[in-house]
């Protein structure tokens, strides 16, 4: 087997000779350079060393004693380091050269491409030019590493990373190892691929997968709504031309809330003694 067939994998090679800039390793037929900045210790001729083979920026096979968590055929969560709208995103797997996750393997809409710092679950592939690149894990691969949720997990808060996106919803893999789906109605905005999200389990299905909502719980939502309304009220010196009899379309346009949510938030502020209503206006109570 040639060294080319080991690109993206670990192999054991022997130090054939030493140069000022590194070590030439051999499998008995071919040599490959282990640059000094990729060697973790001093080596001598004849030493056997485990290395990871990759292609450098010139397309040459190179070796590293830094062994990534993944290889061709294995998977790991890795961090996004940069985004190029024309070609894709770059990932840090521990090598001197970041790995490309190409545009063809990313969502059609760049608005949900990963940002720097997001995490994606990938494996490695080698193309016809012997260049190493990343490939997203399929839904079946995620299924193979997931664990089943139970009815006891219903309504629990979760955190996880988005591993697939679509118009109808987003798919998430949680820290616990659950595989979940977020319907478009259960999110305010569409999360990015690789984005870390927080939500709650709203259903546990028979196959052990979960449905997740990213929307605030009712009491949390009411707190946010009332804070938003009060902030607007104070920005108008404590008076606004809206009350619980205002038209639903006016409320929606100004606050982005349904009339029901608006009335609940007003009721909360009144109960807390922060506001009162006169006519069609709402006023902040002065201390």
Automatic annotation (TrEMBL):
Name this polypeptide is given: S1 motif domain-containing protein
Pfam families the UniProt entry points to: CvfB_1st (PF21191), CvfB_2nd (PF21543), S1_2 (PF13509), WHD_CvfB (PF17783)
SMART domains named in the record: S1
GO molecular function terms listed in the Swiss-Prot or TrEMBL record: nucleic acid binding
Protein family (similarity comment): Belongs to the CvfB family.
Domain spans labelled S1 motif: 6-66, 153-215
């Amino acid at each position: 087997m040639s060294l080319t067939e080991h690109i993206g994998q670990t192999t054991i090679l022997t130090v054939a000779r030493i140069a000022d800039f590194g070590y030439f390793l051999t499998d008995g037929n071919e040599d490959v350079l282990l640059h000094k900045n990729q060697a973790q210790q001093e080596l001598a001729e004849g030493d056997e060393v485990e290395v990871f083979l990759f292609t450098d920026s010139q397309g040459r096979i190179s070796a590293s004693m830094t062994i990534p968590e993944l290889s061709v055929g294995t998977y790991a969560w890795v961090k996004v380091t940069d985004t190029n709208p024309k070609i894709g995103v770059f990932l840090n797997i521990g090598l001197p050269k970041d790995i490309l996750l190409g545009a063809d393997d990313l969502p059609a809409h760049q608005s949900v491409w990963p940002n720097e710092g997001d995490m994606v679950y990938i494996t490695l592939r080698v193309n016809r030019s012997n260049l190493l690149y990343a490939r997203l894990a399929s839904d079946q691969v995620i299924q193979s590493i997931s664990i089943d949720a139970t009815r006891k997990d219903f309504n629990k808060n979760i955190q996880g990373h988005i591993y697939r996106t679509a118009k109808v919803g987003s798919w998430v893999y949680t820290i616990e190892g659950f595989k979940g789906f977020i319907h478009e109605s259960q999110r305010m905005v569409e999360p990015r691929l690789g984005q870390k999200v927080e939500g709650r389990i709203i259903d546990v299905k028979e196959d052990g997968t979960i449905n997740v909502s990213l929307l605030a719980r009712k009491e949390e939502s009411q707190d946010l709504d009332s804070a938003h309304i009060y902030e607007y009220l104070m920005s108008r010196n404590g008076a606004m031309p809206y009350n619980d009899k205002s038209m639903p379309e006016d409320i929606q346009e100004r606050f982005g809330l349904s009339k029901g949510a608006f009335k609940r938030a007003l009721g909360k502020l009144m109960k807390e003694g922060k506001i009162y209503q006169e006519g069609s206006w709402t006023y902040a109570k002065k201390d």
